[in-house]
Amino acid sequence: MKHLHLRLCLSLMLPLAACGGGGGDTSSSSGDSQALSLGSDSDAARELAMVMQLAAQRLGELPGHGSSASSSTAGSVGGAKAAQQSSCSGGGTVSSQAAPGTHDFSYFGAQTLSVSGEQKQYAQCVQPLGSASSESETLNGSIESASTAAAGDGSRLYYQLLGSGSSSYSSMVSVSSGGSSASFSASYLGEVETQLQSNGDEDIRAVLQTRVSDSQNDSRVYTFGPNGAPFIVALNNGVALSLSGSYQYQTPGCSGGRASVATPSALQFDSSSGVPVAGELELNSGSHQLHLVFQTDGSAVVQLDGATLAPLSATQVHSALWRNPC
Fold it and tell me: Which of 13, 117, 208, 259 has the CA that lies 20 to 30 A from 46?
């Protein structure tokens, strides 16, 4: 099973970038205390970056995500067996057992299907990262990953349950070098369901809260589907990205808030620069709507509540996608 590793922890802790409000309407002026500031081209750039980070970094690289879930089957379909507890190499314990034999895929039409996979319960489980004794990971909480057998069309459904009840699944990475040390932690609570087609098309659906922090007290909270409906990320033919659902965040660099996102037409990306060159992105928060239409040169036409704002140049779009917005 793949766990959160050092590269991901570091990627979540990029230096804070400026978070421009552009003089737009604030949450108080819209009458919604959870609304985002959506009033300028800089707001559009910020939310473009945030949405893409949420889709790619924080959902696409979850521990146990994707096809890796099917490779770590502790038992066969037919129900959980007695848990087997073992010691972790650096201290603490991990208990493993087969996942229940069926799962209700509530984000894909409430299908109850046979699955095979495993449950793990960690208690201060410390393990080294690679061969470097100065880097270690401490795991706590439960994680359950399983998948169906391939359907007639070759597709599979996967799920990950991260945490249990109100208790999160967490990972803390500690690094020591030259007499100094640093730590990076992430915790997860919720469920992710994924459908993977035989041609590689992927549909990820999540209701999940993620908290990340470091030893410098930089703490951030990201929530997929805060209204209880799943946040959806779909990749078709390896090039067309579709997004839908609500999200919410709070960071030191941005006041944050809640919004919903949709792609009226799927985003298409340039293979060399990685910027969208076709498609539309629609953001709604409070009483406001931002609409971005991506052009073949990598720029974006920006509309706020139907009125055209200053466009985002290709350079601005590229910059937004390759920095931490908050």
Answer: 208
200-218 core/surface letters (b: 16 or more CB in 10 A; e: else): eebbbbbbbbbbbbbeeeb
Mean pLDDT of the chain: 81
Count of Cβ atoms closer than 10 Å to residue 57 Cβ: 17
Q: Reduce the DSSP state of residue 260 to 3 states and report it.
A: strand
Is the distance from CB of 62 to CB of 319 less than 8 angstroms? Answer: no
What is the distance of C-alpha 176 from the center of its chain?
27
Helices and strands in the chain: count of H runs, count of E runs: 5, 20
Half-sphere exposure of 71 (CA within 13 A, CB side): 7
* Domain assignments of the chain as residue spans, ordered by start: 31-61+220-326, 63-217
Check residue 167 and report its DSSP letter.
B
Rounded Cα gap, residues 182 and 85, in angstroms? 30
Task: Summarize pLDDT for 165-210 with one digit per residue, the tens.
Answer: 999 999 999 988 777 888 889 999 999 999 999 998 999 999 999 9
Ramachandran category for residue 7: left, alpha or beta (phi over 0 → left; psi -120 to 50 → alpha): alpha
User: Within a 10 A sphere around the Cβ of 221, how many other Cβ atoms?
Assistant: 15
Question: Do 144 and 99 touch, CB atoms closer than 8 A?
Answer: yes
Confidence of residue 67 (pLDDT cuts 50, 70, 90): very low
- How open is the CA angle 29-19-296, to the nearest 5 degrees? 100
pTM of the model: 0.82
- The tokens describing 297, both together, are 């040169």
Give the rounded percent of residues in the chain with a pLDDT score beyond 90: 53
DSSP 115: -
* Cα–Cα dist 76/71, whole Å: 12
**Which residues have CB under 8 Å from 307's CB, separation 6+?**
none
